[in-house]
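So, can you check these tokens?
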Amino acid sequence: MVFLIIFLSGIWLSRSGEPYSGVVLTVHKLISLAAVVFLVIALGQANKAVVLSTIALTGGVVTGLLFLCAIVSGGLLATDKPMPEAVLTLHRVMPFLSVISTAVTLYLLLARK
């Protein structure tokens, strides 16, 4: 559900044009941050319950880096400065990769129980 809200608010932002709505942009950023926090908490709790496998830990790190890349590219797009097309492309691809990586990481965490 969180990813759906992130995607829908992102689509809303892109269709509303610049300058971006402060409220929608803030909601989009906060929900994205909440997803990252959830992942970190889930990894921490899972690691307390049982030592994480190397692959699960690697999945968590990769997912975190993908989220970070999506957040940074989105932040760059929200500035008043024109950005290269590569930044927009990156911001369009990273959320999908983040969702896939999150699903794989959560599967690896839940499969251990």
